UniProtKB/TrEMBL annotation:
Organism domain of life: Bacteria
Phylogenetic lineage: Bacteria, Bacillati, Actinomycetota, Actinomycetes, Kitasatosporales
Descriptive protein name: DUF1697 domain-containing protein
Signal peptide (from-to): none
Matches recorded under SUPFAM superfamilies: SP0830-like
Source organism of the structure: Streptomyces cinereoruber
UniProt-listed InterPro entries: DUF1697 (IPR012545)
A Pfam match: DUF1697
Length: 184
């Protein structure tokens, strides 16, 4: 039995730093025994098929180790199954019809975030921007885009997600990864 997964790499290919060419990432994933490997964009999104029975954490650890061995630097990664990604998209508490990808983001966490830390944020002070927590994800609605968002700066503070790996994707990428990991 096989399953489709997405690998989300954090902080690569930004301003010429921590370069991980997508062709090399595909080859690396194939070298780990994964099949049907495809990448999306240059920002560290890959999908692959592998045998079931291996946990997301085990897949993540193997990928992080292989990247460090190949490229000489550590890259935090998250590996998530296609069913989880679809559930995240379906559970979005914000209206998604007609929205631009830059207006809605999913911040994926390596584990459950500390709800109390996020509850301390005064969301009213940041309206019309808003966020909501889900299953190992934070949804962030920013009508003017993340680059101009004050709330985005607040929810991105390392102290809020202490001890967790966090990587964000805009809504277009969220939906594309759901499509790419869909089991036919």
């Amino acid at each position: 039995m096989t399953q489709r997964y997405a690998a989300l790499l954090r902080g690569i290919n930004v301003s010429g730093h921590r370069k991980v060419p997508m062709a090399e990432l595909r080859a690396l994933l194939e070298g780990l025994g994964h099949r049907d490997v495809r990448t999306h964009l240059q920002s560290g999104n890959a999908v692959f098929t592998t045998d079931t029975g291996v946990s997301e954490d085990e897949l993540t650890a193997a990928l992080e180790e292989a990247i460090e061995d190949r490229f000489g630097f550590r890259v935090d990664c998250l590996v998530r199954g296609g069913a989880y990604l679809a559930a995240v998209a379906e559970a979005c508490p914000f209206p998604t019809a007609g929205i631009e990808g830059k207006q809605l983001h999913a911040f994926y966490f390596s584990g459950p975030p500390d709800v109390e830390r996020f509850a301390a944020i005064d969301q009213e002070a940041h309206r019309p921007e808003a966020f909501a927590l889900g299953d190992r994800v934070l949804y962030l609605y920013v009508p003017d885009g993340l680059g101009r968002s004050r709330l985005g700066d607040v929810v991105s503070r390392p102290s809020l997600s202490k001890g967790l790996v966090v990587t964000a994707r805009n809504w277009n990428t969220v939906l594309k990864l759901v499509e790419m990991t869909r089991e036919d």
